[in-house]
Structures are given as C-alpha cells and as structure tokens.
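Dissemination and training. As part of the outreach component of the grant, students in the summer workshop were shown how a complex can be specified as a set of sequence lines and then modelled as a single object. The example used during the hands-on session is reproduced here so that future cohorts can follow it. Participants entered these lines:
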Amino acid sequence: MKLLLTAFEPFGGEQINAALEAVNHVSVPSEIELSTLTIPTVFGAGAEMILSFARSFRPDAIIMIGQASGRPSISLERIAINLRDASMPDNVGNQPVDQPVVPSGPAAYFSTLPLKTMRAAVLSAGIPCDLSCSAGTFVCNDLMYSVLHLLAAASSPVLAGFIHVPCTPEQASLSNRKIPSMQTSDAVKGLEAAILSLCRFLDRTNSG
Amino acid sequence: MKLLLTAFEPFGGEQINAALEAVNHVSVPSEIELSTLTIPTVFGAGAEMILSFARSFRPDAIIMIGQASGRPSISLERIAINLRDASMPDNVGNQPVDQPVVPSGPAAYFSTLPLKTMRAAVLSAGIPCDLSCSAGTFVCNDLMYSVLHLLAAASSPVLAGFIHVPCTPEQASLSNRKIPSMQTSDAVKGLEAAILSLCRFLDRTNSG
Amino acid sequence: MKLLLTAFEPFGGEQINAALEAVNHVSVPSEIELSTLTIPTVFGAGAEMILSFARSFRPDAIIMIGQASGRPSISLERIAINLRDASMPDNVGNQPVDQPVVPSGPAAYFSTLPLKTMRAAVLSAGIPCDLSCSAGTFVCNDLMYSVLHLLAAASSPVLAGFIHVPCTPEQASLSNRKIPSMQTSDAVKGLEAAILSLCRFLDRTNSG
Amino acid sequence: MKLLLTAFEPFGGEQINAALEAVNHVSVPSEIELSTLTIPTVFGAGAEMILSFARSFRPDAIIMIGQASGRPSISLERIAINLRDASMPDNVGNQPVDQPVVPSGPAAYFSTLPLKTMRAAVLSAGIPCDLSCSAGTFVCNDLMYSVLHLLAAASSPVLAGFIHVPCTPEQASLSNRKIPSMQTSDAVKGLEAAILSLCRFLDRTNSG
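and obtained this result:
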C-alpha cells in the first residue's frame, strides 16, 4: 500500500501551518509506504506538482491536509467546488474573486475516500472528527478540486480527498484569538487512525 | 512553597473528569510541595474537606480545578458568586434552584490568585488561556465561593482560586458533541505554567 | 418580470417554518408578478411540482427559501450537491443516508442567481446576509439540486437558487435553545431587497 | 407604579446604541409612569445622575439597559462586580485596567429585580431571553454596580438591575460582522413584557 500525504506551507502571516506540523509527524506501519509533499499556499500551484510526483510514486490514495482556523475537530471534506473566492491573498499575492478553478470544469467533485469509515476510526481513537460539506473557497478547496479533476480526467483509480485539522494550541494562544485548537500529537493520532482505516478499506477493495 | 490542588470526581454521567485527569498528571519542581485532593461533585461537600486538609498541610495557595464543557481555553475564574442554580443534578441528586451558597454570605468573592500574571505564563507556554467572569452556578462556583468564604472568615492569608479546563478530545469525540477540547497533556502544561508563575509571585511577595 | 418563490412546510416537529412565514408576507411592486408555492418537506417531492408549475407560469427566476436553524443571517446558497444524508426524518419518515439526489447526476450545481449583487442589496437594506457554500444534505439541498438539475436538463434559461433564513424569535424562545433569530418582518425585508436586485439584474441582462 | 429606564449613548465608534433605540420606543399602559434617561458611556458617570433623578422622580424600580454585541438573546444580568477592566476606551478615553468600581465596596451586588419572573414573561412574548452571570467589566457592569451600591448604601427599597439587548440587524449587517441580532421592535416587545411582569410583581409585593 502506498499513500501520498500533502500539506501546505504556512500562510496568512503565520509561522507554522498546523497541517504541515501534523503531516511531518505521521508514522505508519512498515507495510504502508508513505510519502509526503509540501505544497506552496498558492492558487493553482499544487495539483500538477502532486500529479507529477504521483506518476512516479504511484500511490493508492492521496490525502491532502490543510489547516482550518476556528474548527474544533478534524474535518473530512466531502466535496470540492469549482470556485476561487479569496478573502485574503495567497502566498504570492493572488486574491481571485469569483473565478473558476478550471474554466471548463464541472461544478464539483466528491472526495473518493471512504469518509464515514475514516471518521469512525478517528472517533474510535478518541479524536473529535466531523464530515464537512465545504472546504471553503481558498487554496485548500482549490487544490482538492484540481487534484480530483486531474485524476478524473486521467480516469485514474487513485483515491483522493482533503482533510482539515484545527489550529494548534500555540496558534490559538496568540493574542486576541478565542478559537478551538487541537494538539499536533492528537491531529497526528487522528490522521494515523484515518490512514489505517483507509488502508484496510483499500485492502478489502483490492482483494474483493 | 506548598500548594494544594483539588479536582472533582466525574459528573453528569461521564466516565472521566478532564480536570481530575489533568491534576493527576501535574508535576512540579521539588522545591514546591504539592498535594492534591479529589472532591465529590456535590453541593456543599468540598469546602470543609479542603479547609480541614489545609489546616494540617498549611498550603500557601489553593487552586481548585474543574471541567467546563464547551470552553476552548483554560479559564482563570475571577469571581465566585453566592448562588446555587443547577440545570442538572449533582452526584447525589441535589439540584438547588436560586439558593445561596451561604445564606448570610456576601454576594461574591474575588479570586485572590494573581490571575493576569498566571494567564501570561500559560499563554507563554503556548496554551490558550482566558480570564472568566463567571464560574457558573453549579458545583464549581459553589466550591470556589465556599472556600473563599471560609478563608475570609478565618482571615487566612492563604491565596485561593478556581481554574476551568476544557473537555478532553476523548470526551469531545463522543457522539453528537461538537465542542472544543484540550489534550490532558496541554491542560497539564498550562496548569504547571500557572503554578510556577504563582510560586514566583508568592516568592516575590514573601520576600518583599 | 415573473418570479416564483417556494417555501417548505414546517418540519422537525415545529409549528411553523420561518421561511414559509417570510414568503407569505413578501410583497413586491406591481410590475413584478410573484407566485408562491408551498413544498412538502419530503425528499424528492418538490422539484417536479415546481417545474410543473413553472411550465405554465413561465417565471424568469425561481427562488427557493428554507429555514436554517442556528444561522444568524440570511444565507444565499452558492451550490447544491448530489447528496442526501439526513440526520433526522423528513415529513413522511424518509431518512436517506449517503444517497445521491439523482443517481446519474453531476456532483453539484451552482446557483444561477446573481448572489453577490443580491447580498449587497440585502445588506444595504440593513439586514445581515452572507454567502454560504453548503445548503446541507437534507431536504433544502435536495430541492435546490433537483430543480437546478431539471432546469439544466431542459437547457432552461430560468435562473434558480436557494436562500436560507434564520429561525424566528418565537422559535428561538422555545425552551433550551440558544440560537440566533431574525424577525419575520426583517426576513421579508431582506428577501424583498434580494428580489428587487434580482429583477434589476434581469432587466439589465434582458435589455443588454 | 413608577419606573426609570436608562440607556447608554452609542460607543465604540457606532452610530447607534441598540439599547437606546429600544428604550426610546418602549411604551407602557398609562397606570405605569415611565421616565427614561440617557447616560454617557463613561466610567463612573451615570450612577449619580440616575440617583439624583430618582430622588425627585421616586421610581419603584430602575432598569438599566445596555447593548451586548454577539449575544443572541435579551440577557437579564444577575450580578454586578466591583471591577473595571476595559478592553477599549469609553467615550472620553478612559480605559481602566483591574480597578475597582468602588475602592471600599463589596465584591458584587445581585440584581434586585425578579429575574426569573421577568424571563418567563419575555419568553412568553416570543422573544429569546436568558439569564446572565456576567455583565462584563466595561461601562455596563460599572453602572449596574454603582447604582446598586448607592441604593444599598441608602438602604433604598428601590429595585434595580441591568438588561442587555443584542445588536440590531442594521448593526450586524455592517461589513465583516457575523453576529446575531434582534430587531428593535422585538427588543421593545421583550422589554415591555419584562416591565409588565415586574410591575405585577411589585403590585403583589406591595399589597402582600
């Protein structure tokens, strides 16, 4: 089993990105081959990078991870939409308003990960977890849509989806924020539980 | 330096109490003598127990710790009020409505802990922390008021106050809750930072 | 100019539906011909009813209105997704889990209403208003998706979209709810502002 | 029966004050004599003004009304505390930090209004209403504490308390706020219900 995890570079003037912190600490049993990729927090920059890497690495699934300030739980995103509408600039200053991700693309793509199975596994590990119907209209949604679009265009069997993690306590303790947070070790624990349940799902599917 | 920490038994049908979990893991440098006491989650049951213990232990300060479901941060309570108004029964079935804690007592007591100093220390440790102006009207406020009342009645120089900690991720991952949480190890880290800053404050005060 | 407004019957054991209350009080200048339709709160029940009515009424636009408990503002929905996942039964006891609205349908449809123009008009009228990227996975999303799907299948030029309104103060004052609310007269004022801005948009488009 | 209502001038750079708007529209049956007073939003400025007015007007009760941004309901304040701790300047630039309202005063005063009776009346009128255990540490709490302190010092039988109302929809519709709101007509309806229940309570008490 081969998995590709991605996370974004810090953005919005922050020193760290909670998702990147978590991804850097995920460890899995040796029968799972895990690669991780750090993506620039820039509209349109990540998908080709991921697909290019995937062409040589040949993962069974791609899990993109991002940080969602203000959410109290790990969020498994159900759908990515063909919309860029940024309320702040990305890391190179782009701030698209009401633009499509792919001008000729469909309105949306559903995650192809087994989300409810993964959620049950995360909750069983004692980590708060919810499904989400919106990955927003910033770079996270942009990447999720783009990757699912490229995979669909290639009729690829590779599963893919996006997971948001809360800010870290360190981020939440910065002045004047009153937001929920999740310790990196717990985000890691949740992601590992999600990954293991995904791998069991893939095993069953492949042998079925 | 001697400190007394207290926490409540689990209540409201829960298996654990986040504050008790945290208190059980707090550790401090050897020059601080720390005792901990577990208090029944029952109106009126804890204060005499604490004061009785304190008469032999002779702490410099008493920090009572409780669990506050729904809060995202460690909350340093500023004030306890002379009111019992329970929206659910305590652990022996008491559910007082609009009763005073102490019939002849004053309306409220302020915490005598150096709260802003402690908050700064908790935040510096990277743990979200806020001041709070209400410890509610359940057993937490009841205990805080009672202990401050008994100390005041005895003209005791012992400092005392109450700190609320969020639920743990395990508690928040139980079905249908969408509440913020804090890992026990982070609650512990925050409490330890608060305790150390309190001890430095006491040192300065005593030598001043 | 002809507009069709729809609202749902009360659901979830409630006596009223905030959206239905509002729709019943909307009034517009006489140059706009307005029809309203009340839809059963049942998966799959409303779209054909709306399209059938629309075939004779021939509206320029269809605005579906629903109630969103817990939201503080009028929400203009950007997108409907091909998913039914109900956390409670509809008014005839259906509670589909992870079912598509239309088995062969695309993942989603964007609202075809000029949402940012409408939002600006609602805000100018002094009524809180936001865009939303999720109409949920209950009957509201189901209806929005179905109507947009049927219109798309017919290559219809009719614009269509969905607007959520908050609960009324009466609903919010029922015991134990601590949710934001909006007076029906304000929901009406907001909807009227949205309708007028839509009609001006259609006028410009038609004459352009 | 004579009642004195007070409200603050707009503050924090706002054009209006939701409480002042409401108070200006309250009307009561002719057997209730109502006077209203507008108070500068300045620490320490209002209580003497109110007491001076009350010495000639001789009200049976004083209800102070203020605006609480972010709250979804009418809040009946249970208690005022002897603390000024401002996170923004008042209308003349005072921003006290950790100061007492009255240096020698007690820690707190409970409202002397029949709050649960009043809450039931407001809810019966279909207006969301809650009890609150904190009026904050800004000018609202300052006024409530000061008035209760002066009345207590004079052994006055006049009842007094503080009620917070949410922002208006107009205030909430200003850019970038996502806060609950309440229409002025509903705040008025709620306040009128509270006033009538208070007057019935006073009638029963006086004749009892």
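The two ends of chain C are 15 Å apart (CA to CA). Students were then asked to discuss how this feature might be tested experimentally.
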